[in-house]
Amino acid sequence: MEIYEELKVRGLIAQVTNEEEIRELVNAGKATFYIGFDPTADSLHVGHFMALCLMKRLQMAGNKPVVLIGGGTGYVGDPSGRTDMR
After folding, report:
1. How many helices (H) and strands (E) does the chain have?
2. Quick one: which of 19, 41, 47, 53 has the fewest CB in 10 Å?
3. How far apart are CA 73 and CA 39, in angstroms?
């Protein structure tokens, strides 16, 4: 089973625009994708772990991950003005 189909069967892909094009890119290992984190948070949590595992699976299939640590958010803070936990 190719990586796109595996992710879809596992419920990790729910809705896609241009599905055939995305399927071909991901299965061929030619997709570049990003995952982002808020540097103002105290720590990572289990929700981040799922995204990191997905990133690793896509990378092992030849795709290129880009990890972003929210520089703008870290500099100016939460744009909603919230200071308490979500």
Report:
1. 4, 2
2. 47
3. 8
**Residue indicated by tokens 């055939």:** 20
Query: Secondary structure of the chain: what % helix, strand, coil (to 5)?
Result: 45, 15, 45
Amino acid at 73: T
Residues 24-82: tens digit of each pLDDT: 999 999 999 999 887 777 787 888 899 999 999 999 999 999 998 876 656 666 666 66
Query: Which two structure tokens, joined as six digits, stand for 29?
Result: 């290992």
Residue with token string 């690793």 = 56
* Amino acid (1-letter code) at residue 85: M
Residue closest to 83 by CA, chosen among 35, 42, 36, 37: 42
Q: What is the DSSP letter of 42?
A: S
Q: How many residues does the chain have?
A: 86
CB 31 within 8 A of CB 62: no
